[in-house]
Design goal:
The chain is an alpha/beta fold. It has a single domain, classed as P-loop containing nucleotide triphosphate hydrolases (Rossmann fold, 3-Layer(aba) Sandwich). The chain is built from 9 helices and 8 strands. It has a 5-stranded parallel beta sheet with strand order 2-6-1-7-8. Strands 3-4-5 form a 3-stranded antiparallel beta sheet. Strand 4 and strand 5 form a beta hairpin. The protein is globular and about 50 Å long. The structure holds cytidine-5'-diphosphate (CDP) (2 copies). The site of one cytidine-5'-diphosphate has 15 residues, from helix 1, helix 7 and helix 9. Keywords: ATP-binding, Cytoplasm, Kinase, Nucleotide-binding, Transferase. This is Cytidylate kinase. GO terms for molecular function: ATP binding; CMP kinase activity; dCMP kinase activity. Belongs to the cytidylate kinase family. Type 1 subfamily.
Length: 226
């Protein structure tokens, strides 16, 4: 009947946000928006331009020249930065280890936050990140805060990179904890559970189960909205 809602999924690294958000969007026929990919694209671009995360003036100017586009496809999402495909580059270790520092910058957050709000204007969006329910889309009809133990999250990442990146499980756990801390402690729109966000602990939950739980919650919201 054309009734659509916006769904915000926030939480720490490796909680399963992107995997689950993509499935939920697919099942509802909604658009999935990975805001982490946008922060990663800004980080990659700034690094390429030789601009550090503390260079506020240069960063503020740099972001105004960026055009970031997300395109959904069969093999996941493609990320374009000023027309160039940077899908692979933004997942590099160098980007992962530095993204939280760039994400703490005010101009970067304002620029991306505004872009994210525009993408959600017409509803029917599943957006995942750190500050979506708390800051970007405070009126989202459904907010989920997805967590899992740090051990489980590190293990999930380890399974993804084992044999590809020379990194141990312990290292990954340490890096994830550090990134969580930076994201939770930054001054501007930190990682926090919005008061009205539903807490979902996925430590012992398979992907399919988490996705089903969120689809069910959204159907309840949709029924209530009528
Ligand atoms: O997928 P992963 O958990 O590694 O992280 P991501 O979702 O790709 O996000 C990368 C980083 O971007 C996070 O650690 C945050 O520093 C930043 N971020 C943010 O500050 N706000 C968002 N809404 C999304 C990501
Ligand atoms: O986006 P976020 O950083 O929160 O996590 P993700 O990239 O969606 O998930 C990290 C990894 O955990 C992926 O390899 C997922 O397949 C896996 N995962 C899982 O094993 N069980 C879940 N309930 C959710 C995700």
């Amino acid at each position: 009947d054309g009734e659509r809602i916006n769904i915000a999924i926030d939480g720490p690294a490796g909680a399963g946000k992107s995997t689950v958000a993509r499935k939920v969007a697919e099942q509802l026929g909604y658009i999935y928006i990975d805001t982490g990919a946008m922060y990663r694209a800004v980080t990659y671009s700034s690094q390429q331009a030789g601009i550090g995360p503390q260079e506020a003036g240069k960063l503020a100017d740099h972001v105004t020249h960026l055009d970031i586009k997300l395109q959904a496809g069969d093999n996941g999402q493609t990320v374009f930065l000023n027309g160039k495909n940077v899908t692979e580059q933004i997942r590099s270790r160098d980007v992962t280890l530095n993204v939280s520092h760039y994400a703490a910058n005010e101009a970067v957050r304002q620029f991306l936050g505004a872009a994210q709000r525009r993408l959600a204007e017409d509803k029917g969006v599943v957006m995942d990140g750190r500050d979506i329910g708390s800051h970007v889309l405070p009126n989202a009809e459904l907010k989920v805060f997805l967590t899992a133990s740090v051990e489980e999250r590190a293990l999930r990442r380890y399974k993804e990179v084992a044999g590809k990146q020379p990194v141990t499980l312990e290292q990954l756990a340490e890096e994830i904890s550090q990134r969580d801390q930076l994201d939770e402690q930054r001054e501007i729109s930190p990682l926090v559970r919005a008061e009205d966000a539903i807490l979902l602990d996925s430590t012992a939950m398979p992907i399919e189960e988490v996705a089903q739980a969120i689809v069910k919650l959204s159907r309840t919201k949709l029924a209530g909205a009528k």
